[in-house]
Amino acid sequence: MSKAAAIDIVSVTKTYGATTAVRAVSLKIPAGSYCCLLGPSGCGKSSTLRMIAGHESITSGDIRLGNTVVTDLPPARRGTAMMFQSYALFPHLDVAENVAFSLKMKGVPKAERHKRALEMLRLTHMEEYAARRPAQLSGGQQQRVALARALITDPEALLLDEPLSALDPFLKIRMRAELKKLQSELGITFVHVTHSQEEAMALADMVVVMNDGRIEQAAVPRTVFERPATAFVARFMGDHNVLSGTVTEATEKSATIGMEGGGAFVASGGGRAAGEAADIAIRTDRVRIGEADDPALGFTGTVSNIEYRGSSVKLSFAGPGIDDFTAIVGDTAFFARPIRVGDTVPLAWSAEDAIVLGRLDA
Ligand code: ADP
């Protein structure tokens, strides 16, 4: 259908009065990739997306789409299309007219634009609803119409602002799969804003984790999950214990982090110096209970809470200088040797499951 464009964001800042929403962000999104901007509310995701779309001015920096600097171009001349969270359909137009609206603005003759609208509706499985009004559609169907309307402009990049947030959980998962399929069929660049780490991991070729107007990490989902770059990413992605301390010993490939409570843990990751503050991450699903081999790779904890989750059990522990440490164990393993709140047990992990986290320069 259309060719995809790479998006190059070069040191882009956005301020609204005294608020800085985006702080000198640089990011290269490869052509034809599915990119998710992920982070908590207010971290600058939508501002970044709206600047790519041209719905928000860029305070400083540049955005390039393919070989074109689009910084000062209006939305319609950028080669992007935006799908809004609210769908923003015209209530007085039928579905086909909604989808064809931008072609009407461009002066495309009626028969031609109706034909193109039906093609787009076929793509989003909404052809049979062409004559309905938006009010006669479910939320999920309205969303498909909004998607068809965005795609009719033949964009090189589709920008989606929290496209699944208004759907119920079941529909969310279905639409998620359809978005991914559509993206791979069309081959165009998708940039999708979400605050759900699960959604980002399920969809993206590239996950961009944002916090307070900055990018904490941009990588393939597996890297973001397995090698979180910072404590923020490790906490936001979940399934990691983040412990903070001071580097007592550092080598090229690892560091020993002393905890306030007296213990010291070794973790992989170079470039640290003794005396620095540092954070380490330990995967919650890699913690072994009832084993004590190496004090640099474990501690003795007291069970503070137990949550049954079906296929797994979540155990919370407190230890020396450690308020809250989580271990996720399989249900079979847990019930084979159940433990109770108040029990004190040794906890251990393997060297490769503890990593030193980086810090962003302020
Ligand atoms: P996110 O999409 O991650 O929730 P936004 O980009 O919407 O974040 O917002 C980032 C920051 O900019 C927030 O502090 C928000 O309050 C502020 N902001 C966003 N839009 C405006 C606006 N139009 N006027 C003033 N402040 C805004």
From TrEMBL:
It comes from Chelativorans salis. Belongs to the ABC transporter superfamily. GO terms for molecular function: ATP binding. Residues 7-237 form the ABC transporter domain. The keyword Signal does not apply. Keywords: ATP-binding, Nucleotide-binding, Transport. It comes from the Bacteria. This is ABC transporter ATP-binding protein.
